[in-house]
Structures are given as structure tokens and as C-alpha cells.
Structure prediction request, 345 residues.
Amino acid sequence: MSFPVQSVFFTLKVSVLLGSLLGLCLGLELMGLPNQWARYLRWDASTRSDLSFQFKTNVSTGLLLYLDDGGVCDFLCLSLVDGRVQLRFSMDCAETSVLSNKQVNDSSWHFVMVSRDHLRTVLVLDGEGQAAELQPQRPYMDVVSDLFLGGIPSDIRPSALTLDGVQAMPGFRGLILDLKYGNSEPRLLGSQGVQLDAEEPCGERPCENGGICFLLDGHPTCDCSTTGYGGKLCSEDVSQGPGLSHLMMSEQGRCFVLVARQLPEPLAFVPLAGRSAPHCCWQAILLPVPPAVGQAGSRGHPVVGGTLTNASWFPVPIIPLACPFCTTICHSGRWPCRAASKREA
Prediction:
């Protein structure tokens, strides 16, 4: 199932990649050679957890990552199938899969996340989420193995691998960066046929005047919202220019909209939010607020109304949702949206 967001005026796509912001990621270059692999400390995908990374490739098939329960029932496999990303997994011997809508063998950077939440698993590719859900008797995934990236070692017995034929799958060919379990970098236990420290897309530090580099639609992009500058590289002085709205993330992991200058009409912020705060801002749109705004929401919180004024911050709390990546509009009263100063944020 897919969760698209329809834009009224324009769509602001944001991938909040902490590894790109901090420059701490360890890159891998994989050539698709026989018996290539990188082995990481076990990812606990049993109940609730997220795994994410960036990758770039020009091939249509290959194994991205794999883990299992040691040859019994449960496994999770992420691979390329006909140029698309396929997530295939099993819990208590009940199996399902999802296939991405877009192709990724275009030599561009892509961001992928696997989000586990008990019986529900979501594949997120470049901000678009597709969910799959199982109804096994056992409500968790049993994970025994370490995480294998790009291939499976040939010295592992086939009987110890739950998914038949996974060891014979072609190895991934391309670059993988910024592997994260939640917000943490996993420990690399070993590798073979893999070159470490591959080039990071923001490694050349293209942003000027303190701008922050991140990936947008697979390309390095500059966040200039805190610099007083604009343009592609944060090199243009926009202190006297017309205002724009910027998406920001606080240290507490909440999302904010900053309206730099007064706008001609009221606007509402519509986040596409999941339960994991570091990945809360996948896509956003700005649209006019209907006349009904200004009334208290259903929870008794005031709703954003009137014209947004100079440098006003509007917190959007990240609330755990039963459906990750569902769209919720602030002025509907379902979220407590209130004006706050930058100091309050």
C-alpha cells in the first residue's frame, strides 16, 4: 500500500539524514563480485526498530541486505528486482513482500528505510512509504543472525539460511552509505570484496555560509534556513528578499516551519509523519488555510490561523500513529498546532 501526498501549490520533499549532516557515515563500494559481503552486528528487528541507508547503483538485480533466525522460519531480505527495491520478509513462517513503485538503477542517490512495528513493516524509498502486514500467531520477528550487506559469505551452510537461494543471489553493485539502526551506526564485524570509505555525496561540502548539506531526490542539496542566505549553495543574500517557508528539525526531534517574512495569505503546514521522530519530515506541502481556522481544535488546542508573521515558529508535535506516513492536516484539529516563538522552540 502506498501513501502519496497530493500537492496543491508545490511539494517540499525533505530527507532528514543525520549521517549526512554530521559527516560520520562509513561508505561501502561493492563491485558485485562473487562471495562479496559486509557483516554488521545484529539488527534487533524483532518488534520496533528502523534501519536506513543511502545507496547508488546502475544495475537492476542484487542483494542489498539479509538477516534471519538461523534457518527456521523468519527472515528479512532487501534486494533489487528489475531495477526496483523489493522487501521480502517472513514471521512465524508467514511470508509477504512489497515492491517499490520507482526504479532506482539510475546512478542517482536514493534513501531507503525499513521500519518495523510488530506485525507491520514499512518500506520507505525516497520519502514514499509502502506497508505490509502479517497475522502470524507469534507477534514478533525472531532474529538470530548478524546483518549481511551486499552478499552472503560462502562458508555459511545453506541449511542455516532461512530463505532458499539467498546465498546464490547476485551481489549488490554500487555504493552504500550511512547505514543506521535508528540513529546509531552499527559495528562492522568484517567484510570481503568490499572497499570501505566510499565517497559521500556531501563530502565536498558544497554549501556556503554555514548551510547544511543533505540529499534531496538523490542529489546533494543545501539547507540555508538558518544562514540568512539563499540560492542553490546558500550564497545569495536574501535578507531583503521575499520570504520562503523552511522545514527545520529541533534538537528534540520535532519539526517546525519557519516563515522568514510575512506572507500574503494564511498557510498551513501538512507534514507526512511517521512514528520515528528523526524521520518525521518526509514530504510537506503548503496550502491556504480555509476560513474555519482560528477555532479551537478537537483537543482544545488553538489552531494556526491568520497570516503567519515574521520569523514565527510553528511546532508540529510528532505523535505515534497507528499508520506510519499517514497525512494529517494541522487545521483539522487532530494535531495541537500553536504559534510559538523561536525561543520556545
